[in-house]
């Protein structure tokens, strides 16, 4: 179970300047009040346009940096206070897959398992089990060097799942995947959240509405660093008064921007 409560994060970003002259500084409010509650046995979508703050939120969830405000807990463990314990309960698939190119897929998976404190045999058995689930038998003993995008994603996902975490967090996992690889990933995630797959808590971030419609039972819409709406796809359609999800998403995610434009025009 993952609980993100009213987190915010700003960055200091350099603007302007040149080789000879230092530029100024600007504060970027990347996240300014995102909340998300993801129970076990459910796929929860974090849906937002480019730059909405999804990756920043998930990086805080993964303990990469602390939020300026707000609170994040994984199975009741506060990430800020006990990051290692919280991380041990999570499998994170970030935007950079960072595999070791000289290691085979199996070795990449086992290495990660060892880092999580697993015995060699247990990690190997798990690598074999995950290779079956993710249909990666043909690449298990190939070096990661030269892997296609889909092969890299599968290996990185298997690596994230090696210690059988109760919580799975995926940041835009279908980026660069073809239709078959995307379908295979969807199937694997549906299995993992089912009782037979362990009833995992899955958080899935994307800017693609169709993915959310096909996969997520609950969706949190983020825009300009804030959670602006949440519910099932049907509830979001109702809330936006729209008949299609694309219209609903545009209405919900860009409502403030439209109001501001209307105020400026008036
Ligand atoms: N380290 C940083 N320094 C300065 N600004 C940052 C930093 N990280 C993120 N931002 C800014 O914060 C905002 C949110 O970025 P973030 O990557 O979280 O969005 P996102 O929803 O994941 O977008 P996308 O779908 O395009 O990946 C953006 O405006 C981004 O430029």
Automatic annotation (TrEMBL):
SMART domains listed in its UniProt record: AAA
Name the UniProt record assigns to this protein: ATP-binding cassette domain-containing protein
InterPro entries: AAA+_ATPase, ABC_transporter-like_ATP-bd, ABC_transporter_ATP-binding, P-loop_NTPase
Superkingdom of origin: Bacteria
Pfam families: ABC_tran (PF00005)
Species name: Roseateles violae
Keyword RNA-binding applies: no
Gene3D superfamilies xrefs: P-loop containing nucleotide triphosphate hydrolases
Family the UniProt entry places it in: Belongs to the ABC transporter superfamily.
SUPFAM superfamilies the UniProt entry points to: P-loop containing nucleoside triphosphate hydrolases
Gene Ontology molecular function terms on file: ATP binding
Keywords, ordered alphabetically: ATP-binding, Cell membrane, Membrane, Nodulation, Nucleotide-binding, Transport
Domain ABC transporter residue range list: 2-249
């Amino acid at each position: 179970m993952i609980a993100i409560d009213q987190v915010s994060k700003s960055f200091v970003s350099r603007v302007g300047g040149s080789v000879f002259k230092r530029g100024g500084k600007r504060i970027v409010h990347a996240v300014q009040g995102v909340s998300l509650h993801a129970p076990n046995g459910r796929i929860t979508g974090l849906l937002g346009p480019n730059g909405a703050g999804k990756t920043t939120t998930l990086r805080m969830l993964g303990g990469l940096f602390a939020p300026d405000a707000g609170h994040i807990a994984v199975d009741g463990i506060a990430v800020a206070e006990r990051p290692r314990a919280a991380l041990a309960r999570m499998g994170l698939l970030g935007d950079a897959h960072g595999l070791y190119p000289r290691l085979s897929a199996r070795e990449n998976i086992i290495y990660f398992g060892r880092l999580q404190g697993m015995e060699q045999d247990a990690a190997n058995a798990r690598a074999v089990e995950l290779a079956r689930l993710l249909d990666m038998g043909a690449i298990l003993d190939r070096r990661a060097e030269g892997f296609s995008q889909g092969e890299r994603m599968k290996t990185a996902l298997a690596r994230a799942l090696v210690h059988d975490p109760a919580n799975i967090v995926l940041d835009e996992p279908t980026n660069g995947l073809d239709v078959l690889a995307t379908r295979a990933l969807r199937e694997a995630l549906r299995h993992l959240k089912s009782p037979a797959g362990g009833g995992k808590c899955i958080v899935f971030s994307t800017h693609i509405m169709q993915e959310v419609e096909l996969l997520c039972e609950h969706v949190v819409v983020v825009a300009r660093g804030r959670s602006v709406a949440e519910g099932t796809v049907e509830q979001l359609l109702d809330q936006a008064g729209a008949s299609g999800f694309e219209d609903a998403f545009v209405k919900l995610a860009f409502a403030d921007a439209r109001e501001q434009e209307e105020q400026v025009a008036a």
